[in-house]
Amino acid sequence: MKEEKYTSKYKWCTLVLVLTMTVLLIRLWDLQIMRGAEMRKLSEQNRIRVKKVIAARGIIYDRTGKVLADTRPSFNIYLTPEDIKDFSQTVDGLAQLLSCDREEIIEKMKAATGMPPSFPIKIKSDIPMDEVAKVEANRVYIPGISIQIEPKRNYPYAASFAHVIGYVSEISDEELKDKKKYKDYSPGDYIGKYGLERAYEKELRGTDGEKRVEVDAMGREIRTLDVIEPVPGHNLHLNMDLDLQLAADKALETRRGAAVALNPKTGGVLVLASRPGFDPNLFASGITKKDWQRIALDKAHPLQNRAIQGGYPPGSTFKILLALDALELGIINERTTYHCGGGFAYGNRVFKCWKKGGHGSVSVHRAIVESCDVFFYNVGLKLGVDRIHEIGNALGMGRLTGIDLPGEQKGLIPSTEWKRRRFNQPWYEGETVSVAIGQGAVWLTPIHLAMLSSFVANDGKNFKPHIVNRIVSTEGKVIKTFEPVVNAELKLKPGVLKIVKDGMRGVVNEPGGTAGASKVQNVLMSGKTGTAQAGSDKVKLGDHAWFIAYAPSEDASVAMSILVEHGLHGSSAAAPIAKGITETLFKVKSDIKEAKVHENR
Amino acid sequence: MRIDKRRFYHLDWYLILNGLILFGIGMMNLVSATSSFSSGSWNFIIKQFIAFTMGLGLMLVVMYYDYRMIANHSKYIYAGGIALVILVLIIGLAAGGARRWISIFGFSIQPSELMKPILVVFLANMLYDKKRQNIPLSLKDIAKPLFWTLLPFVLIVKQPDLGTGIVIILVSFAMLWYVGLKKSTYAVIFGVGAISPFFAWHYLMKPYQKMRVLSFINIDADPAGFGYHAKQAIIAVGSGKFLGKGFLNGTQHKLQFIPEHHTDFIFTVFSEEWGFIGSVVLFVLFISFINRCLKIATNAHDELGSIIAFGIASIFYVQFTINVMMAIHLAPVVGIPLPFISYGGSSLLVTLASVGLLLNISTRRYMF
Questions:
Q1: CB-closest option in A14, A116, A217 to B36
Q2: What is the predicted ipTM?
Q3: pLDDT tens, position by position, A357-404
Q4: Any idea which residues of A carry the catalytic annotation?
Q5: In degrees rounded to 5, what are phi and psi of residue B94?
Q6: A91: chain B residues, CB-CB within 8 Å
Q7: SS3 label, residue A494
Q8: Where are the domains of chain A?
Q9: Which of A601, A556, A599, A544 is nearest to A581 (CA)?
Q10: Residue among B180, B257, B275 minimizing CB distance to A46
C-alpha cells in the first residue's frame, strides 16, 4: 500500500536522517581530526593527578614527655553513588558488614543530595581493623564502596584534658567564607576549634604537601612523579603534668568544679581540670548529631571550662587578699584584735559570722586559721572597696590573666567607679562588708584564685599563667621557649608575708584550722578554705566550696585553687582535692586511715 | 504453537541482521567500558546477555500476536504501564538521587523504559482512523493524544528521569506529524513550543538540571561538576583521532573521568577506542537501522501498523541522536541510553520488544 501520503513523509524523514548524519560527522571531524592531537594530549595529561598530602599535626606532650594528643591513621568508608550497580545489594551488604542500620546509610546519602553522583559520601568514620578486613574481603560484591586512610587526631586521655587541649574538627562552611582569615584552608580540612588546638593552630598545623602521581587504568597510583613534602606541624611541650592532672580529674569525680595548679616560680600551669568534661575524640572523627546535641544541651554545661570561664564568689579565700593589703598598709598589725561575738552590726543590718557563738577576741593569725568573718568585716571597711579592687587587679584577679587559652573570663572585683558606670549609683559602705568576705558583687574564676595563692607562695611575686612551655619542631629544634612573664611583684614590708603564710599554714596544720583534715604526711601544705553562697537569697542552692593552697609551706613548688560547685564546705569538698594533687606531686602515699574513710563513703 | 512458515520467509532479515550487528558491537564495547570496574566485566556481560535472552523471548511473544490485536488491548497495557510508573514513585529504588527502578523477582526494571513502546501503540490505536480517512488533525484532535502523553511524561519527569520524558514527548509529536496536522495546529504547536522552555526553566526544572543546561552553554561555568564531565567526554571522543586508541586501550573512561560511561556516555568509550572511522561505521549502522524501520512503516499493511512502525523508528532516532549529541557536547547532559549499546537490562529488553513489534508489522504486510 504505497501511497503518496507515505512517500512524502518518508522523503522528509530521509532528509532529517541525512541532516543528522551531516551534523554529527562535522562535529566528529572537528573533534577527532581537526582538534584530535590537542585532545589526545589532554587525555594523556589526565593520567596524572595531583593529590594533597596532609601534613601531620604537631604532637602535644606533658612536661615529662608523655603524649597528650597525637595523630594516627584511621579508616573511613566512602560510597560513590554512581558506581552502585544494584542499590539494595550495596546498601544491605554494607549495613551488614558495618553492623549499622540500612536507614543510617540511606540518611547519609540523602544528606549528600545535590552533589554530583561521582562525589564519594563518607558513610562511617574510623572503623576498627576487623571491619576494614571484612569490607576489603567483600568489596567485589559491593561496588561503589571504598576505604580511605585519613589521619585522625587522637586524644588518649579523652575528657581529662578536654578543656586544655580542646579538639580539632572539620572546618565549617561559615569559617571558609572568611576567605582572608582561612585562605590556606579548603573543605574537609581539619582546624583547631577549642583549647590549645585552637590557640596554637598556626604552630600545630604545618603545611600540606602535594604529590603528582601517575594512575593506572583502575585509577590506582602506580608511580609518583614528584612530591612537595608536607611540613609537619610543630610539637608542643606543656608545663602540665599528666599524673597531677589525672589525680585532680579523678578527685573531682562526678562533681562539677575545677582545679588549677600553678608552678609559683614560673607561672607554668601544672593542672587545669574542669568537670564535667566531654570526649574530644568524638569531635575529631566527625561528631554525630546525636552526640553533639547530648553535649550541647547538657544542663551541666560540659563545654564550659570552669577553670577559666566559671565565675564564682571567692568566699573566704578572698580574706587572704585583705589580710595582705591591710598588713602592708599598716591598718592592722600582728597584734591587732577585733572582738567577734558572732555578728557585726553595720547600718541597720547585722552581718553574721559563720560561727554562731563567735570567735571572741581574734588577731589576724586566728582570723585566717579559723576564718573569722567579723575580723575581716572590720578590715574591709577600713580598707575600702577601691583599695581592694586595686590590689586584686594588681595580683591578676578580676581581669584577664593572659593564660594561653581562648575564652578566658575577666571576673570582677567591684569599685565605686565600676558601680557608677554600671548602675549610675554610688557605692554603699555596707556592700564593702560583703565584699570583704568574698561575697556580694565580687566574682572570680579558679585561675584568679590560683594567682592569689601563687603570689603568697612565691613571697610576693606571681607570673602570668602559661600552659605551653616550648614549641619544638619535629627535628627537635626549639622554635620558641616561653620564658616566665612576671605578673605582679610587690615589695612588701618585712614580716607581712610571714604573718599571712603562718596563718595559711595554720589552716591546715593547727588545731581548729578549717582544713585540718587535709594535712599531708611529710609535706607541709598551707591553704585557705572558702565557702561561697550560691544563688540569691530567694533561691538557696548548695554553697560552692573553695580551697586555695600551696605546698610545701616554705619554698613552694605548687600553688593551687580548687572549686567544687555546690560542694557545701571548702574543708570537706575542695581541700581533699588539693591534698590529692600534693600527694601525687610529692609521691606521698595516702595513709591507711584516710583510705578507709574513702571506702566507707 | 504453530508458526506460519510463510511468515518466517517474510521476516525482515535486514532489520534482524542490522540489529544483531549493533548488539554485537554493544557487547564488545561493554567489555571495554566495564573493564575498569572493580567487579570486572563479566558481571555486566552476563547480566546484559541474560537481558538479551529474555528480550528475545519477549520479542517472540510480541511477534506471535497480531499487532492489531495488541493495539486492540493497548488500553489495558497502557493502564498497566502507568500503574508501574506510579508504583516506582512510591516504592522505587533510589540511586543517585532518583527513583527509577522497581525490583521484581530480583530483577530491577525501569518502568519508564517500558512506557515508550506502550505509548506508541496506544497513540497509534487512537490515531489510525484519522490517518486512514486522511484528515489532518485539528487542535481538538490532538488534545486527547497529548493528554495521554503528558500523563506518563509528568510521572516520569517526577522520578526524575528527564531523558525518558523528553523521548516520550518528542516521539509523540513525531507521530502526530506523521498522521498529519492542520496548518493551524502546526502554528499552535510551534507557538507553545517556543514559550515552553521559559516556563520549564522557571517552574519545572531542578537546580541540577539547570546547571546542566548552563554548563552546556558555557562548558567552563561549572568546571567541577557537569561542565567537567562534558569536557572530559569531548576529550575522550577527540583523543580517539582518526583510527582510535584501539580496543581496550581507552584511558578516559577507565580512569573514571566520565560518569555513566557504561550507560549514557557509552558513545565516548566507543569513539575513543575506534576513532572517526569506527564512529562513522556506527552512525551508518544506526541510520540504516532507522531507515529500515521507516521502510517498514511505509510498506505496512495498514495505517495502524504504519503509525506503530513510525513511532518505534522515532524512538530509535530520538535516542540515538540525543545520546550521541550529548556525548559530543551538541546537547545538554541528559540521561538517555543508546539503544543496543548502553548497558541496562530494561533498555535492551524494550529495544528487543520494539524490534518484535516491527517484525510483527513487516511479516504481516501481505495479509488481508
A1: A217
A2: 0.93
A3: 888 899 999 999 988 999 999 999 999 999 999 999 999 999 999 999
A4: 316
A5: -95, 145
A6: none
A7: coil
A8: 50-128+139-238, 305-549+556-600
A9: A556
A10: B257
